[in-house]
Amino acid sequence: MIEQDETRHRVSGVPQKAMKENFSMIGLPRERLGEAAELLARCFYTNPNFIDLFPGQRAQSLALRRMFAAGLRDALGFGHVYAATRKAERSTGDELVGMALWLPPGAFPLSAARQLRALPGMAGVLAAAARSARRLLRYTASIARLHPAQPYWYLEVVGVDPPAARGLGIGTRLLEPVLALADEAGQRCYLETMTERNVTWYRSLGFEVRDGGVRFVPGGPPNWTMIRHPVRDQAGRDRESKGSDGAQRGETR
Fold it and tell me: What is the CATH number of the domain that holds 115?
């Protein structure tokens, strides 16, 4: 659904290669769900859509934690929730610095059984921001209407925090496992992004804009939906767009 800004940041005095080697990629253990929800809430605290949906700092912070916890709880059942970790500075363990949640083909929209299981968590979101209930429901319905026909992999969220961990390719590494699976199986990937400058990053991973400047609620901030065709199909798609003399047959599709 959403992602934290992946724009590059320079960290002075530390070689970028050395910093990259300090991070590991793992499947998120269920017992770290709360930590992951806290991380994602921090990532998206200043996101324009959530500022619009959840007015008030306290309501926004609580609603985001509960919303991401509900999403994580649902996605963990499909086995494609990935986490980036690094050694903790003040303990012998590690800490989460990035998350990516994917739903596999056929898993969106939620089945009736999954909606029922998610109900307590979403009720908690609405309780945290009761005045936002109608707007939030309209927001989620608008997102669902724009989804393409199945099958496709759905990137629900990717986020990297703290700022010192950004710009090191962690977001890309978090997405690579599913992008590779999708290419191997010849399947598409789909996402929404709330940040226009991230469109360039996603394009570097093979995504293309499907809908640009979409507002999920009246007066809300613009969003972009993007789709990625499997790499093994891309060469064929490119060849089909050219005539026998190599000239481009069409400007759009």
Answer: 3.40.630
Q: Which residues of the chain have pLDDT under 50?
A: 7-19, 236-253
Going by the DSSP 8-state scheme, the letter that residue 25 receives in this structure is: E
What distances in angstroms separate CA 144 from CA 6, 86, 108, 222, one per listed residue? 25, 35, 9, 16
129: containing domain: 2-173
Distance, CA of 15 to CA of 127 (rounded, Å): 46
- Asked whether the bond before 163 is cis by omega within 30 degrees of 0, the reply is no
User: How many CB atoms lie under 10 A from the CB of residue 179?
Assistant: 20
Residue 117 lies in a domain: yes
How do residues 146-157 score in pLDDT, each as one tens digit? 999 999 999 999
Per the domain annotation, does 144 fall within a domain? Answer: yes
State how many domains the chain has. 1
User: By the 8 A CB rule, do 160 and 81 touch?
Assistant: no
